[in-house]
Each structure stands twice: as C-alpha cells, then as structure tokens.
Amino acid sequence: MKKRGVFGRLVLKSLSLGKIVLAGLVPLLLSACAHLQSAQTPVVRHYHHAVVLESSADAVFNHPQDLDVAVLKGLLARLNYVGTSGLVSEPTTMAVFQPAEIERLAPALQQALHDASAKQWVRFVSFGQKQGVLFNSSRKTEGVLFFSPDNQVNIAFSFINAKRAPSETSAIYHQFATLNPLEIDASETPLVVEESGVHLKHSANGRRASMWLEADLQTFADYLMDKELSVPESSVEPTIVFPLKRGDALVKEEVTAPFTAEQQRQQQIIQKLRFFKRLFDEGLISLREYEEQKANVLMTNN
Fold first, then answer.
1. Which pLDDT tens digit goes with each residue over 184-219?
2. Rounded CA gap, 269 and 283, in Å?
3. Phi then psi for 171, rounded to 5 degrees?
C-alpha cells in the first residue's frame, strides 16, 4: 500500500506539471497565431482570387508603387511555364494565367502595390480551370509580387496550376503556403521566359531559379509597344505616281517618297490606338481603361 501511495503521488505530480506546462504554452501559441494573422493584411478576398500584404522583418522593398495596370496585364499574359498535357502527359509550354484570371487579378495586385509599405510584399492566389483531354480540372496558382530596391518587379511562384483539393472551393478562405517561394530551386512546372526585359533570377546559392522572375518594366513596356506598333514594310511609305514622257507616250512610274514628320506622327498615333484596342479585344483591359488610354493618346498628340 505504501508503494502504491508513492507511485500515485508521483503520477499526480506529473499530471500537475503537465498542466502547468500546457497552461504556459497556450498563451504562447495563441500569441504566435495572432502574430501570424496580423502579419497578413487582406487587400482582396474573392471567390476566385485573394491578395494580401505580408510583412517581412528583414526585407526592404521599393514600395509603394503606382503601376500601370495595362502593363501589368501584358506581363501576366506573357508568363508561360512547362507543364504536362494529354493522355501521355507530354511536356508542353502553357500560359500561367488564363485571360479571365488576369482580368480579375491584375487590378487587385495594382491596388496592393499602391498600399504596400517598404516592409511588405504582395502575396496572391488565383483559382482557375485547366483544360483536360475530357474534363477541366480545378487548379490554383500562388506566389508573391514585389519591387526590389533597384525598382525591378519580381514575381516568384510557390506553385503554378497545382491541383486543388475538393475542399478548396473558394479563395476567400485560402490558407497561403508557409514556404518562401524565393528559396525554390527546382520545380516540375518551371517558368519559360522569352520576353525582352524579363529574366529568371538566381537564388542565393547561385543557381538559376525556376519559379522566380525579374522584369524591368520600362524595357518590357517599350518591347510591348514596339511589338504592337511594328508597321509592315508595305505601309511604311506612301507611293506617289509621276507621269513620265517616253517618246510620244506618257508612262506612269511609281516613286517612293519618305514620310514627312507629320505623317510619321499620325502613323504613331494610329498604331498606339490599335495597340490599346487589341488589348481591349483580348480582354486584357476593361472598356473604361481602354477609353482612358485612347483619350490620353489623343490629348498627348494634339
């Protein structure tokens, strides 16, 4: 009986000690959870996408930024990656975002960059559908967006078009990944960078990152404009017809004359208007944005 009494007291002491430890840990856990929640400031939480500002104690970003949403949409529309498609899962280059995703996501990212502080980067997720052989599948793309101190825009993905769980029906309640996308060296869905002013970053160990790109937006915007404003050779210069006399007959001979400065200016206006009209037709900018850009071009060149 005496031994049982000693053993019982030891058990009671152990239980009491456990309660004390748990009592001390609970406030710490609650404090940690509260800290994690306060580190993220919601900007947009909709059914198909969510954008938050996330604090970083060590990093310094060139924020806030007023970014042209048309250029941002152009950048998102030209992001590609290598995925698999078909019954045999062949590697195929595919778009990261669908047009509907870009239309939803770009304004939210623009607003987030405007609201961000020098200690916050933008974390985002977009829910979409991936076309399959027989059926579409629910997918999600998550990453971060920020401007580095040298004013380069950076986009790093945690995953691209990853399969969503059946419970992941809305981005409103999405729990963002805890991993740092800047630390991802290799991926099954690597980015494909083929645009001027855009390149893949190198990680801290010197290896080229597969899910992190950097872009000089001015160079990229100029590239977009040059690509859209490229004029076919046949329309670069007008043709003037001069009557020339050869013997007793009048012969018409075509002579190419260069554009005057005014003609060149008018041609540039037309091409700029076509550029923004094409963005609108492809669903990359809204009607309001198209009208604003058109009015800006006409006012600037009058």
1. 888 899 999 878 899 999 766 777 889 999 999 888
2. 22
3. -80, -10
Categorize the per-residue pLDDT at 113 as very low, low, confident or very high, splitting at 50, 70 and 90. Answer: very high
pTM comes to: 0.66
Q: Which of 245, 261, 244 is nearest to 253 (CA)?
A: 244
End-to-end CA, the chain? 105
Distance (Å, whole) CA 142 – CA 96: 11
Structural tokens at position 300: 């600037």
pLDDT per residue as tens digits for the range 130-159: 655 444 679 999 999 999 999 999 999 999
- Residue closest to 144 by CA, chosen among 121, 119, 120: 121
Nearest of 115, 120, 121, 97 to residue 49 by alpha carbon: 97
Torsions phi, psi of 127, nearest 5?
Answer: -95, 135
Is 13 in a helix, a strand, or coil?
helix
CB-based contact 210:158 (threshold 8 Å): no
